[in-house]
Amino acid sequence: MKITHVTTRILSTPADNPLVVGLPAPTDTREFVTLELGTDQGLVGIGVTFFGGALTKALKAAVDGLGALIVGHDPTQVEAIAAKLRRAAGNSGPGGIFTLALSAIDTACWDLRGKAVGQSVCALLGGLRNRVPTYASGALMRPHPVDYLAKAGPRLRDMGFRQMKMQCGSEPTVSASIERVRVMRESIGPDVDLMCDINQLWSVNHAIEVGRRIEPYHLCWLEDPTAHDDYAGLARIADALTAPIAAGEYHYGIVPFRHMLEARSIDVAMIDLVRVGGITQWMKVAGMAEAFNLPVVSHLVPEIHVHLIAAIPNGLTVEYMPWTIGLFEETPTIDTGDLVVPQKPGLGLAFDQAAIKRYQVG
């Protein structure tokens, strides 16, 4: 099987979240770069990347440029393709746009690997389970008022979610942060897993102070409490608190995860498929985390991450942030708080042509 052509598009979709109810619809958009790798056997592999912001056009150009270099190559040789693209990129990596572009290509190659042999990506990677826990994300965001959280939490629970994540970090006082977590915990009860994302907004000392004072509310994890590359600071927080510390979504490639793991900075490794460089690199980080006896969770793109979390023994849960749900014809089913792995070959996904027509830019 050989790659014969590369098709990329920029899609600009509404920045909404179907889990959010009763608030004004956002007026901004999200931009994605989609990739289709065609082959001489008629199979098409798909990938998606983003985080481009104002550089989305440059990200598309990077995917186009790297994609042109692998025309004529066997897409099942994912390590050979990654090595060639790293050499071709020179000193532009390992982070930034290069890794974002590599991720789309690597993901599309894995999709083709599965389609070529009639197996799901999950099965190719080990096929440990056919369903995994998933948590509601993006519905309990930082700008949302406390009274909204008190209503939204039970609604998510009634939808079947046994896990959910809120945001903190911008509150004017320590007491306000504590109140926000208290309201969430009391609204959903003791049996729902509650995570809290800070998105790097706190200092180390502030994270320790607040973290200790919210311990009665039993967080499943406290996420990115301080700067993502302050490995020693994260380790201080992790050592001081009983709540597990999760981090990793801001890291590009596999090397920063080694630093985090060696510094004992985290209790939960969160791996972002797009920033880490694709499925091939994602699995390497998951293996490192397993060697340190740590669980792995995903960041964004649940439609793809369900395959990865389900395939590994230390896969804990999938973040159900439905930003990309509108890109696909059909997405994995949620059943009583679990995300079910598609059994179709490859990723089991196909781009929704109506969505492409509606949201394509240029």
Structure description:
- This protein is globular.
- Strands 4-5-6-7-8-9-10-11 form an eight-stranded parallel β-barrel, surrounded by five helices. It has a four-stranded antiparallel sheet with strand order 3-2-1-14.
- Strand 4, helix 5 (146-158) and strand 5 form a beta-alpha-beta unit.
- With 362 residues, it is of the alpha/beta class.
- Helix 1 crosses helix 3 and helix 7 (204-213) packs parallel to helix 8 (231-240).
- The relative contact order is 0.15.
- The chain folds into two domains: 3-118 and 352-361, 2-Layer Sandwich (Enolase-like, domain 1); 123-340, Enolase-like C-terminal domain (TIM Barrel, Alpha-Beta Barrel).
- Helix content is 39%, strand content 21%.
- The longest helix is centred in the N-terminal third of the chain and has 22 residues, at 96-117.
- It starts with a strand and ends with a strand.
